[in-house]
Structures are given as C-alpha cells and as structure tokens.
Amino acid sequence: MSDIRLSLAEIVGEDYVSNREEEAYFYARDPGLMPAHKPDYVIVPKTTEEIQKIVRLANKDKIPIVPMGAGMALTGLIIPLKGGIVIDMKRMNKILEVNEKARYVIVEGGTSHGVLKAYLEKNYPRLRHSIPDAPATATIAANVMIHGQGRLTQQYGFNSDMVTGLEIVLPSGEICKIGSCSISKEWFSKGAPLPDLSGLFLGWFGATGIITKVALKLYPRKKMRDVEIFVTDRDDLVPDIVYELTHTEMAEDIVIFSQPKPLIFKDNHHVTIFITGDTDEELEFKRKMIWDAVDKFIKTKDGGFMWVQPAMKPTLLEMPQRSVSRFADVKKGGGFEYSGPIILVEKYPECSRKVEELSSKYDLGYSGMARIIGRGHCMMYGFAFTFNRADPDMMDRVRKALHEVSDYVLEIGGVFWKATVDEQRLAIERMDPNTRNLMKMIKNNLDPQGIMNPGNWEVN
Amino acid sequence: MKYEEIVHRCFRCGYCKFTSDYTDFNCPSYRKFFFESYAPGGRMWLIRAWLNDEIKNSDRLQEILFSCATCANCVEHCVFTFSDDLVNIFIAAREEMVNEGIIPPPVRDYLKNINISGNPYKEPAEERGKWADGTAIQLYDDQEYLFYIGCVGSYDERAKKIARAVGNILVQAGVPIGILGNRELCDGNEVRTLGEMGLFQYLAEQNTSLFKELGIKKIITLDPHAFNAFKKDYPGLEEKIEIYHYTQILAPLIQSKKIPLKEYKATITYHDPCYLGRHNGEYEASRTILASIPGVELIEMDQNRENAFCCGGGGGNFFTDILGGGNDSPNRIRARQALNTGAQIIAVACPQCAKMLDDAVKIEELDDKLEVLDVAEIVTRALA
C-alpha cells in the first residue's frame, strides 16, 4: 500500500496526500449519522490532470475512489464504504469564466457556493446563482451532483437543472465534456439540442465519474429583496396557499417551516415568501400581488401575514442562512440529520403531521421545512431532527425516526433526495425493472471495475 | 481537558474557515495544508477523538494542533454560541499535550529557552535592553508610561529597528516613557498559546509583581502579543494598569498634529495583526495614523479588519515555524494579497508580522515591488 501512497505523492506532491490516522478518522465520517468507514488515502489534487492520473492509478489497482466536496449532504455519500481514496476537491476552486450577457459561469469542481457568491457580488453585481442553504463551503459540483436546491429553485427548478455544461473525468481517466462545450468553446447548454448526457452523471453521487468543471446558469440579481411570512394553523390549506402563490409568478423563493420552538411558532405553518425588485414600485407590486393571492385565506380567518420583526429579517434574508447550521446545536450537541424526500406539495399536511408524530414518538427536537420546487411541481420536505453527539441514545432515536421516514416516503409516493445507501437500496428494489436495467447498463459500461464511490447506486 | 464539555458540539459546517462574505478561505493552517483536519472543525473532531482514545497523540496530531495560528478567524466566523471558546479549546488541547510531555520538538525548544534564558533566542538577559543603545530612551524611573518591548523587539534585528522607531517617536513627541532594559521579562503570550500554563502563570506573576514594585500605572506595548497578554490573560492587571498598544498613543497625537508630519507620498496597504485586531478589536488606530500622513494613499486588501488573513506567525508559529514553508504558507499568501492591491508598502503594527511578511516578500521575490514597514517606521519617514 505504501507504493500507492508514493505514486499518489508523485501525482499531487507529498504534502497533499495522507494515509495518516488523523485524516482517516476525519474523512471516515460526515456530520450526519451514517456509520464511519475509513479511507486508505486522502488526496487533495489541484488540477484535472492530477485527477486523471489518480483515476488511472486507481483503475490499474482496482482501488475505490470517492470524490468529496464539503461533505454536507449528511447522508453519508462521501463516506468511503469500501475504503480506497477520498479525493477532496476543494483545492480546485477557481472561477474560470463568467459570460455576463449569456448569464453563465464556469467553475472548477471544488469551488464553493460561498466563493462564487462573493465573486459575483464583487465583479458582476447584476448576476446571481441559486444559493442553497447548506453552509457556504458546500461545493457547486457536489450540489448539482445530488440535485440540490437553492434560492431560485421555485422559479427555475433543481440546481442541477441550471447546469449548462460539465467536464467529467470518466472512470477510465479520460476527460469527457458534456453539452455545448463538447462542440463549441461556449458552455451555454448541458444538452439541448444535443442528446442530454448530463444524466449519466448528475444524481449518481460520483459513481460514474468525477465533475472537474461545471457551468451554471446565472440569473438577474435585483437590487432589493424582502420577505413576507404567511401563517396558518391549517396544514391542509398549505398546498392551496402554495398553488395561489406560485400562480402569481411573483415570488423568488417559497419555503414553509413548522417547528415547536419558540412557542410563538408552535402549531403554525409559516409560508415564507421572498420577493425581489429593482425599484420600490416593482417590489410593492409583487408584494401586492402576493397579498391579493392569499386574501381569501385571510378573509376566512384561516391565516394572515405575520409581522416580521426587523431583527428577524437579516436572518431570513441572508444567503446561505447560517441559522440552518445553528439548528445542529439546539440540544447543545452539534448534530442534526434530515431526510428530505422530493414529493408532491399536496402531501404537505401528511408530512407535517408525520414529523410531529415521530418527534413525539422518539422524544426528539424537530423542524419541518418544505422548499417549493418549480411552480409547485413538487417540493423537498425536510424531516429534520436535532441530536446531541454526546448522547448515543438520542442519536439512535434519530436513526430510528429517519428509518421510519424512509418507509413512509415510499408509501406516500415520494422519492428520496440524496438517498442514504439504505434508501438507494429501497429505491432500486422499487424501481421499474427496465429502468434498473438501464442504470445497470450505464454503470457497467462506464465503470466496469466498480471503483467509483462503490456502495452507492449498486445496481448490480 | 478544559472545555471538554464543548468539543462534541462542532457540526463542522465550515463557516469558521471563511471570511464573513465568503471571499476566500481565511484559516491560515487550512490554506496551507488543505486537509479538513487542519481546519477548526477538523481540530474539534480530532480533539474529541483523542479524548475518547479513538486516535493517539502522534506527530501528525501535534502538527494539526500546533499549526493553529490562534488568529481567531474561526472565533469571528463560527455560527455557534461556543465560538468565543474555539481558540481556547485548541490551546487547552495543546496544554494536554504539554502535560503529557509529547509535543513537537520546536515547541519544546521554545518553552525550554523561555524557561532557561527568559527569551526564545537563548540570549543573555543583559542584552535585552541593548536595542535602545544610542537613543534617548531612558530606563524606567517613574515616568508616566512603561514602554514594554517583549522578546521579539528586544532581540530580533528587524524588530529592534521597529522598537527604536516607536521609542524615538514617543520621546520626540514628549511622551514620558521608560523601559525596563535587562529587568524586562517575557510577557508569555506565546507560552500560553503553546499550552505551558505553569510557565505562563509564573511569568504573569513575575511581571505583575515587578510592575507593582515599580509603581507602574500605564504601559505602552510595542507588540500586540504582549498587549493581549497584559489586557486579557494577566488576572486583574487591566483594573490596576492602563494598557495601550503604541498605535493607540500615536493616533491621537498625530491626529491633533502634536506630532507634525510632512508629505510622504506612498501607496500603503495595512495588515491587521490578529492580536491587535480580532483579539482586541483595535482596527482603527493604525489606519488613523496612516491616513493622517499627507501624501499617503491607503488601500485595503480584500481581507481586512475582522477578515484579515493572518501572517501565520501567531500561536507560537513565529518561533516554531510549523506553519511555514511552501508556496501556500500564510505569510506568502498575505504578501500576494498585498501585491494585488497595487500598494508599494505593507504597513504592519507588530514586530512578528513585520518579520513574517519581510521573509515572504523576499521568498516571493517582490523586493522591488513591496516594502514591509511598521507604522512607526512610516511615521519616521514623514516626521517634519
């Protein structure tokens, strides 16, 4: 094995490869609750060429490879289930090109959302991208790889829908360009009008290749941004409220949260609507449209707009919301985990009741959060439970609650988002056999030796 | 271990690594090593693993812990309620290692040298006040202020020039100062950050006792590290003695033109020392001085004030060099950040930063483009 370490050191330099116990410990786990598995090596490459060499070496010796961004999925997708090499991508963090008029950016595969946000604000203040509420370290490539969502998801779909091109290092070590960039020097489309090959990689969690460059759509950044919160205690009305709101096409983002604490939030559903505008007139017009859209629920006294305290606004408006991470320390224990199935908005009431039921059953702190995807085409519903890392029993109760969520999601027609290995197995079992066979053909053709993030999407 | 009840609470979300606007990673050891294990979150998880006996004290774990520059970027940007204790936690873990007696050789040597010679350079105490030879700076004899120099300003050739510059300006401005000369003792800031709490306590007691014996009421420090130790880590000292960094004395004197300055044309970028800035909230004094010099154009680096990138010398790394070396050593990164502003001069207000950045400018071969000067050295050039 030390020969492999030496070979890896020849590729990236002695300082950027480790087989030491400290890195093995850290990279064996993510912040969630999945069991740890140690890597044999951790490597931090700087270039696509270095990744090609690593992959070729791994292929020759049949060593598993796990690409890693910030490791914030929480569902264990970067845990090296079969050991091997974890490739920490974050040293590949350059912003390569912004095409201002065509509104897209090309970044290296380890570039974080935070860095892109800061770069655009400084250099292209009229452009923005869809920032997820994952911590700012979350990488763009990993986020699209797991079909993440962000601030512009209500308008434009999953963040992966905003990809306009990919550079992939295939399991063979070859570089493959996906989209318009395979023919042209421009990166404006990931597929159309060509066959869209991005699906061979997006959603595969690195099991078919490593993203070394991503091009991403950018969108107009308005000068002003504000937030309104419509509150109702009737969960059954939330889908109708969302339907009316999305019909206006006025909202930037719509998220709904319910949580037991502080007590003023208990038993209510907070439909949080973000609006943007370049002028006061634009902002007020959108606000009025939104108010009018839900007026009927106000008239029947089923809901109303709450006064958003000035102290609360910065927390709600910041991107990413740091308060999401703070949820981890509600129990003074540094942990939370959530299952976030993609599901119809009409299932909101059931999901909301389920998260409360599980919280009560397992005596857990919880938060329920839905983010609307597209114009209400579906939503991500987050069943989130906080836990104390120093309390193994509480951690076990969270695992059991989330296990129940997995079964429940399939029962009510949902699809797992960033599925754990167990959820991937459930999904594969339930999948249409022909779809499963197609996945098998793709996996076996692209990665015949099964070295890419093995354990994930094990269709064989 | 102190703070043991906190270490499990890190979510390792990574906000601690960034600047507040996410422009770049701002943790010096993470920037150099680029493994998560060298970031604050990595340290928290590894300290917990070590305490739980899941990993052992090794040379690697020592490097991970002792490469922390204690710059407090993590304290500034961590989103959790325990953020104020992050650096303290890392120091507490170092203290455990010191108590175990298993520490990196350069750390051991530094602590031994302080213990035996009273300074890290193994120089005799009699040499301590030699930097002031040939100046009008007097030994302390009931002057209003004690001018406290510290080990670096007393013994390091580059830093001695800064000590002289500051001392001369204060004397010229009529500020009544005196120095302790060979009676001065190490302030112990780095002894504390390297985890030798017994030795630090001894130094704090000796210094406090000496200050009391001499009836000292006000101290001006050359070095932000001493400023920090006296203000924050000497029990009860700040209630008895007014403690200033020299820039805090010069700023009002220059602003009120009690120190008249002539034109000095230069484009300058200011590097915030961590122990003046993030640790003690003093961001403006140096800027006030520089902005008051006619002809000076002050340009900020992207990473300034609470987002300043550390030179990599803090937490004892100035002496141990665990964080040094290579293209991505923090001082070289900082020199490149300064170069990007187009400034001709990097202004510093800390002898350790001066030395770190001087070295970086030389290694980066930027000598013809960038000059590293202490604020006092710039003021000296502009004295009327």
Q: What keywords describe this structure?
A:
heterodimer, A: 460 residues, alpha+beta, Uridine Diphospho-n-acetylenolpyruvylglucosamine Reductase, domain 2, Uridine Diphospho-n-acetylenolpyruvylglucosamine Reductase, domain 3, Vanillyl-alcohol Oxidase, Chain A, domain 3, 8-stranded antiparallel β-sheet, 5-stranded antiparallel β-sheet, 15 helices, B: 384 residues, alpha/beta, Rossmann fold, 3 domains, 5-stranded parallel β-sheet, 18 helices, 9 strands, 45% helix, 9% strand, globular
Question: Summarize this, please?
Answer:
With 460 residues, chain A is of the alpha+beta class. Chain A is built from 15 helices and 19 strands.
* β-strand number of chain B: 9
Q: CATH fold name of the largest domain in chain B, please?
A: Rossmann fold
Please write the CATH class name of the largest domain in chain B. Alpha Beta
| CATH level-two architecture of the largest domain in chain A | 3-Layer(aba) Sandwich
Please work out how many helical segments of chain B DSSP would assign.
18
Measured by residues with Cβ under 8 Å of the partner chain's Cβ, the largest interface is: A-B, 45 and 36 residues
Helix/strand-derived category of chain A reads alpha+beta
Q: Characterize the overall form of chain B.
A: globular
The residue-averaged pLDDT of chain A reads 97
What order do the helices and strands of chain B follow?
A: HHHHHHEEHHEHHEHHEHEHEHHEHEH
Proportion in helices of chain A? 25-40%
Given the helix and strand composition of chain B, which structural class is it? alpha/beta
CATH C-level category of the largest domain in chain A: Alpha Beta
Annotation field: number of helices of chain A: 15
| Uncertain runs of chain B | none
* Distance between the first and last residues' Cα of chain A: 28 Å
